[in-house]
Amino acid sequence: MRRRVSTYVLLAAGLLVVVFPFLWTLLASFKPEGEIRRNPPTLLPAEWTASNYTGLFERMNMGTAFLNSAVIAIALVVANLLFCSMVGYAFAKLRFRFRNTLFGLVMVQMMVPAIVVMVPQFVLIAKLGLVNTFLGIVLPFVVAPLGIFMMRQFIADIPDELLQAARVDGAREFRVFFSIVLPLCRPALATLGLITFMTSWNNFLWPAVVAQSEDMYTLPVALAIFSNAQATQYGLLIAGAVVVVAPILLLFLFLQRYFVQGIASTGLK
Amino acid sequence: MATTLERPAVLKRPPAVPRRPANSWVAWIFVLPFLVVFVVFWAGPLLAGLGMSFTDMRSTDVRDPLAVDVVGVENYLRLFDDELMRKAALNTLIFVVTTLPLTIVLGLAAAVALNSGIARLPAAFFRLGYYTPYITSIIGIAVAWRFLLDPDAGPVNQFLGWIGIDGPAWLSDERTALPVIIVMTAWRSFGFDMVVLLAALQGIPKELYEAADIDGAGRRQRFRSVTVPMLKPALLFCTVYSSIGFAQFMEEPLVMTKGGPAGATTSASLAIYNQFGAGAYGYAGAAATVLFTVIVALAFLQFRIGRRS
Questions:
Q1: Inter-chain CB proximity B248 and A219 less than 8 Å
Q2: Of the candidates B7, B17, B142, which has its C-beta nearest A164's C-beta?
Q3: What average pLDDT does the segment A78-99 reach?
Q4: Does residue A40 sit in the same domain as residue A100?
Q5: In this predicted structure, what is the pLDDT of residue A81?
Q6: Which residues from chain B sit within 8 angstroms of residue A232, using beta carbons?
Q7: Which A positions 42-81 lie with beta carbon below 8 A of chain B?
Q8: Number of folded domains in chain A?
Q9: What is the CATH number of the domain that holds A204?
Q10: Domains of chain B
Q11: What range does the domain containing A1 cover?
């Protein structure tokens, strides 16, 4: 019993250390600039204000950036749900030549550092006339190797008999996939959707390269550019950080079950 | 109606259910999305980068790539004489060998604590708290940490001041900048390892611990001879997955310090990024090729060692 209490104390202390940067920043975002810099510092704002947030939306186009981030993330979620499960199904349940070689390539793609392909990718996007477009930001990521890997692991556990029975019924491979495999994949699809949304929402380097005008910036790009210009306007910057971070935290608050199960099953097999 | 009549005939001889070599072309349709994206957006650029690395291509040559001169392995030779590249390689090495164990130890500690009879709801709460940094945008984190560590306005040095310590200018001091990024990355990443290791812990059969108890094993002995061996696959996964990620770290220093002060936080990836920025495509391509080779080799080596033991 004493050990259990000390475990709770330890866990709570650890939690405090881990979330301290978030808590402090969140509280500071409601302080006026002068109070943010005050020494000794205040924990709770002495004077609550939303001026950092209103100032942020006046000074930069946060609404557009927010919308851009959302559109890109949703497009990538839809694309990855469809494509990763299709490809994962082929690797898990269909027989074809070069299957293992191809799957090896999936693993190789996972190891390609972004920086290694960034410039040739950009030249390609430029040749296709896709610089400063949503399509240019999205295309290289419509079928993520980690997603393929996850879906293959999940679909491999679906009993073959189930699929064979449908095939005997004369169902075409596409109908087997859409009417039997996909509905069974719901938990895995939830995980994949969540992880894809998070990855896309947080993605910084590639959108920063492709988006060139303010109306195409995603949230992280807009915030990074703003922070380069105003490195010490802490009130505005911190409010911006909260706007970038909060949607993902809220999403995970409700869906963390899927994240945990998904990572766990990917890591263990 | 016709199908119901046909069915018994098939059922009578189950082995004849076609293994479907016929579906092989269908399979290619299913993998087509990956194939197209891989070839066009990943393999193509990878090979283009490799090709570039043997030329003196610069950003000004993009319009007319055939006008560049082939310089053989000159770019590769130059890499080894480049002070900045050597420093970047050293920084990357230091970063990986410190961040990796730090992340895994923290992740393991959190997983073990969460698995020691904590009630479900608080466990889920702690878990979410612990991996919050992992799911957070690096820009958001950079803004927060730069504020916290600000020499004057940041609370960290203000707290230190209370106990009489004159805190350094964390991110613009050559001695502290890289350590800060190491700690920040471990803080940001350990939650992922925790989730993986926690699932692995929960998968260890209770009987193994009971057997260890019967053999009179103490707590520490149980951990060493049951928990650790059973966690090996999960630990291997965390090691390989994290070291692939850590070896290419660049966004952290890019948004925290821009690689400074005096290159103290310039990683291999960031040095390559800077060369690209300066327009030296051939040279950057050579460095990128070396980095990719090292990462792939590292991953395979770890798998080999992990599988054997």
A1: no
A2: B17
A3: 94
A4: no
A5: 96
A6: 153
A7: none
A8: 2
A9: 1.10.3720.10
A10: 80-308 (1.10.3720.10)
A11: 1-49
Q: Which of A31, A49, A67 is the last residue of a domain?
A: A49
**Shared-domain flag, residues A39 and A83:** no
* A7 min Cα distance to partner chain B (Å): 7
Confidence of residue A82 (pLDDT cuts 50, 70, 90): very high
What's the average pLDDT block by block, 10 residues per block, for chain B (309 residues)?
38 43 77 95 92 86 76 88 92 96 96 88 90 92 91 87 88 93 96 91 87 84 87 89 91 89 92 90 92 90 79
Residues in chain B with CB shorter than 8 Å from the CB of A56 are none
- What's residue B7's pLDDT? 39
> In this structure, are A14 and A94 located in the same domain?
no
- Give residue A59's pLDDT: 80
**Do the Cβ atoms of A169 and A158 come closer than 8 Å?**
no
Together in a domain, A233 and A133: yes
Distance of alpha carbon A219 from alpha carbon A69, whole angstroms: 6
Q: Is the minimum CB–CB distance between A146 and chain B shorter than 8 Å? A: no
Q: How far is B295 from chain A (nearest CA, A)?
A: 7
Q: How far is residue A101 from each of residues A145, B20, B36, B51, B309, measured CA to CA in Å?
A: 14, 20, 15, 23, 26
- In this structure, the answer to whether residues A257 and A219 fall within a common structural domain is yes
Which residues contact residue A102 at a Cβ distance below 8 angstroms, ignoring those fewer than 6 apart? A91, B31, B34, B35
Q: Which two tokens stand for residue B121?
A: 């709801």
| Record: contact A263-B192, CB cut-off 8 A | yes
- C-alpha–C-alpha distance, residues B160 and B155, integer Å: 8
CA A264 – CA B263 distance, rounded (Å): 38
Contact (CB<8Å) B147/A28: yes
Same domain, A11 and A120: no
- Which tokens in the block code for residue A65? 């950036």
Residue A214 and residue A194 share a domain: yes
Task: Write out the H or E segment, with its range, that includes residue A221.
Answer: helix A219-229
Site from A25, A31, A81, A117 to mutate, B interface, most B CB atoms within 10 angstroms:
A117
pTM: 0.88
